[in-house]
Amino acid sequence: MSQIHEKSPQHCAKKKLININKHHKKLFYTFTTFILSLLLLILVIWFILHPTKPQFSLKEADIYQLTLSRSHLLNSSIQITLLSNNPNQKVGIYYDEIQVYASYKGQQITLDSSVPPFYQDYKDSNLLSMVLVANGLPVDPSFGYEVGRDQMAGRLVLKVKANGELRWKVGTWVSGRYRFNVNCVAILPFGQSVPSGPLTSKGTQCSTII
Hints:
Structural class: alpha+beta
CATH class of the largest domain: Mainly Beta
Largest sheet: 11 strands, antiparallel
Helix content: 10-25%
Number of domains: 2
Number of helices: 2
Distance between the termini: 84 Å
CATH architecture of the largest domain: Sandwich
CATH topology of the largest domain: Immunoglobulin-like
Oligomer: single chain
């Protein structure tokens, strides 16, 4: 007589549970391998293309107004033109945000001016022109003294600064956002006599930090 082997429902449930766990583990390992391979591919492409930070230069800065009241409130009007250049061969740049302002002796002398977002293709350049202004902006009491010293020296040193966020574009892949800072120095001739036209500076290279 042949033997009849019967398995309890509990034994069958345990066997089924083991099979389900194995299936879940296999799916987890496959998904993890795919994600790691994708990240490795992106990292390899990143290092091969080696994105270079954008280059900025101050093409022109014109001071039309820089007057200080007795209560140390400043009125200023400065027109600037920045040249933005993407030096990369195969990497585009999305500029999501750029805030520009002027400073003098460590003091901000204009309000922030926003540049509309734009895309810059590889090996492309863009001219960014804007007017930086301030009306009744409080400044340090030493401001007038520092301007007088620069007038005696025959030159006025102004800084144009930009802060913003950018993203790199490689093919259809777009990176996350990166903060960047631009610092430009403008040296303007500033003699004893008040000029009839604006104070003008041209051709200054800027430093960029990401």
